[in-house]
Design brief:
Length: 411
């Protein structure tokens, strides 16, 4: 319980020092100022009844004492940035007073300077500074001040200095340990994110391989059968040669798009060697393939649609493709459809109308209506678009999408 309290107190003190370092610096100098006031205005000198014995020390003029105390206080303000220089200044002040045969209350300043050097300074410099301080203390107590109990006095001063250095090194080691733990935590977090990305990439690669093995194989078989049937029908002069050729061509296009999607799943990026994404210019081929499937399609454009952005052209193409696919599924091959793409200013309007089922056609079993429209709405939403879909007054079906010529930025 006490350890927890001490840890929290240390954390709060460190946080306060980071927010307002000048407050802590001011508090540190208060004991030095208070002890210096005794020397400036007179009072009992250290050594009476203490480790120094009954030796009487000399005094300095109050103005000189005040100046020396002020030098030590100002120097302590810089103990974080230049701890070695601060210790040298404090020791110079102490040595100067001892050479004059006087004693000033400089013990607190010396301890603070040693603590700052051990906490923030170079460790090699600290070793030399500790040795020099010990030599100066011994020389001063034995030869300059000639105290009554020099060995006791030296032990007391060197012992308190050693305690200050030990405390500073403990705090410094703990701070380095905590910094190492924080750095390790950051590294572990980065490694965890990397493992998650690698796991996701491996899963995408696995899904891509499975889809390629299953769907790609079936498409390849379908393309081979369609090409073989087209060659056989052409050799026999049958009219089914052209539809079979279109089936093979459509299958090859689907296989190419499948490989493109699988490449994104596997690598996370598209392959520049693959064919480009379809656009408005490819709608003629799309309409031709749909007509070959038996659906009568009328297609026209208004405005300069070929200058639209690549992403918007892909969205227009996919909306028309999905709408015509829904017409084939739900209205049948005997119906008629009208496709209109109108570009004006910054908007594009895509309209696909059909005449509805003909000849009693019904959608095949297992069909799931609504997924195609959901995909159309999602694509239109990327360009801030609106989609209106539903039956019209003539009994057919109409899909109308209004798109903006710029993608929507998701916050």
């Amino acid at each position: 319980m006490s350890d927890t309290w001490l840890l929290r107190a240390q954390q709060r003190l460190a946080a306060a020092g980071r927010r307002r370092p000048w407050v802590l610096d001011l508090l540190v100098t208060v004991p030095v100022i208070l002890s210096g006031l005794r020397d400036i205005f007179g009072g009992e000198k250290p050594g009476h009844g203490g480790p120094f014995g009954d030796q009487e020390f000399g005094t300095l003029p109050p103005a000189v004492t005040a100046a020396l105390v002020a030098v030590m206080v100002v120097a302590l303000w810089w103990r974080r940035r230049a701890p070695a220089v601060v210790l040298a200044v404090v020791l110079a002040v102490v040595l100067g007073s001892w050479l004059a045969g006087a004693w000033i209350q400089s013990g607190m300043a010396m301890l603070l300077a040693l603590y700052a050097l051990a906490r923030h300074g170079n460790l090699r410099t600290l070793a030399w500074a500790c040795a020099g301080t010990a030599v100066m203390v011994v020389a001063g107590l034995f030869f300059l001040l000639s105290v009554e109990h020099p060995w006791t006095s030296a032990f007391f001063m060197i012992g308190t200095g050693t305690a200050a250095v030990a405390l500073a090194l403990t705090v410094r080691t703990r701070a380095a340990y905590l910094a190492a733990l924080e750095d390790r935590a950051r590294r572990l977090e980065v490694e965890r994110d990397q493992r998650e990305r690698l796991t996701a990439a491996a899963e995408r690669s696995r899904v891509a391989r499975e889809m390629h093995d299953i769907v790609g194989h079936n498409l390849s078989v379908m393309i081979g059968l369609a090409d073989g049937g087209a060659v056989l029908a052409a050799s026999r002069g049958e009219s089914t040669a052209e539809p079979l050729r279109l089936i093979g061509e459509t299958g090859r296009q689907a296989l190419g798009e499948l490989r493109r999607v699988l490449g994104v799943l596997r690598d996370g990026t598209t392959d520049a060697r693959l064919s480009p994404q379809p656009g408005v210019a490819d709608l003629d081929d799309l309409v031709r393939r749909v007509r070959a499937a038996g659906l009568t399609v009328e297609y026209r454009t208004d405005g300069d649609v070929r200058t639209l952005g690549g992403g918007l052209q892909l969205t227009v193409y996919r909306i028309v493709q999905e709408a015509l696919t829904n017409t084939l599924k739900h209205a049948g091959a005997g119906s008629r459809a009208t496709v209109t793409v109108h570009a004006e200013d910054d908007t594009v309007r895509v309209t696909v109308r059909d005449t509805g089922p003909s000849g009693g056609f019904t959608a095949p079993d297992g069909d799931e209506p609504g997924h195609g429209l959901a995909g159309i709405r999602e694509r239109a939403g990327l360009y801030g678009g609106e989609v209106i879909a539903g039956p019209d007054a003539a009994g057919g079906w109409q899909v109308e999408a209004l798109l903006n010529d710029r993608p929507v930025t998701v916050a």
